[in-house]
Amino acid sequence: MNTLFIAVLVVYIVMGTVIAYASRRMNIKTTKDYIIAGGRVGSIVSFGTYAATTYSAFMMIGLVGLTYATGVGALGFELLYLLVTVILFSTIGYKIWELSRMNGWMTPSQMLSDLYSSRYLGMLSAFLYLFVMVPYTAAQIQGLTIIFNYAGLDPMVGTIISATITYIWIFMAGMWSIATTDLYQAILMLAGGLLFIAQLTLPGAVFSIDPVKALMSSGEKGFLGITSFWSPQVFLAYTIPWIFFAVTNPQVVIRLFIHRDEKTYKRSVSLFAFYGLLYTLIVVLAGLLARGFAENGLIPQNLRRDEVTIYLLNLFNPLIGSLIAVSIVAAAVSTTNSIIHAVASSIYREIRSHGDKGSLVILNLISLVLIALSSLLAYARITYIVDLSVMSSVYLLPLAPLTILGIYLNKYIGKYTRTAAIASIVVGVSIAGVSTIVNGGGRAFTSIYMGIPISLWVLLVSTTILLIGLLIDAYTRV
């Protein structure tokens, strides 16, 4: 057992718990305080919770491996995601924040229900979050076993630790404790990334080869250009679900409601953009260096994507490897508790759709049930949760046109649009579901029909159905 990792993990948990407990002084009296921190969060904390929630363990585990395997095209995919996310935050995101102040929105499902004057739509979107995000959360917890295996811990122990941290940091003060621990974890994530890249580039730290030579070796093998993996269809398949992440994923949308004022909102978006760019460059550079080391025979050339980071950590000084590993744990935990809180809050608001005097006991109980369910799925290692997690962003794609058109064309919404809104979700999710059943989660994500990736089919069909409803409403008014 890696005792250094255990020691660093304990320090991380203790410090995070102290921060979460200290956030209780923010005076949590109502469900609004608990769910969205009363809309009183400042720019530094809101930026930190954006960063930690958006960038999960996918970055240091998944994106490093994807870059190692497929080259610099992964950078284009991730940068396009960041660019569009910042644009969405700066346009429709700001509009959502303004309307949330006027309408008292606390959850994404409540927002959709209000925009379309349809409680059924709110309930359907909350159910969709449950269907998609709980398996995604389970996959996050299951993915942590990679890190806990590095430390020599039993998967059961790792699952219990992850679930316990997640629940305590939610329970302490809801969004306040989540957001403050997110800021702490965002700092750890960036520090871990910088430490990781330092180990790969400092002469003699791990490898004797010049990092520039390693990058040149990657380039000689074509990894600094567009490899065959990144066909236009595959690039679209990856980017389309992610570029709408900011308006489809409940854990991100709910954070549009937390800002104290306009200045706070705009500053937090700017800080997030800087953080996202820096973190992305670090992670992709690490992947390209890993490929260069592989081409020079210093590490294997045929590592599975998710094995690359762990293989490198095992070559590092044990203390440094443990610090980086715990930063990856922080990335997964921050995403997990944010998802659980957003989904539990949406379910709670749909159960208690009126008023703000509901018992926090009910909301905490829902969170506990969701964490327990996610942990059980993770420990059972049921295959379908991997499929759903890979496809989660595709299943949520119908919410993109619903949100964007709902915000900008709200005055044109009538009974036909309300019906079309429900139909667009049902049909869009059905398309994604059929593709998952036929191809499996991994292949469904990149499956192509008539030259068009499945994600684009979901988006086009859902948008078309919704537009038909809007056009019929507009025609009947004439």
TrEMBL record:
CDD domains: SLC5sbd (cd10322). It comes from Desulfurococcus amylolyticus DSM 16532. Belongs to the sodium:solute symporter (SSF) (TC 2.A.21) family. One of its GO terms (cellular component) is plasma membrane. It is a multi-pass membrane protein. The chain crosses the membrane at residues 6-23, 44-67, 79-97, 118-136, 156-179, 186-209, 229-248, 269-290, 310-340, 361-382, 388-409, 421-442, 448-472. It is found in: Cell membrane. InterPro entries: Na/Glc_symporter_sf, Na/solute_symporter, Sodium:Solute_Symporter. Signal peptide: none annotated. Pfam families: SSF (PF00474). One of its GO terms (biological process) is sodium ion transport. This is Na+/solute symporter. One of its GO terms (molecular function) is symporter activity. Keywords: Cell membrane, Ion transport, Membrane, Sodium, Sodium transport, Symport, Transmembrane, Transmembrane helix, Transport. It comes from the Archaea.
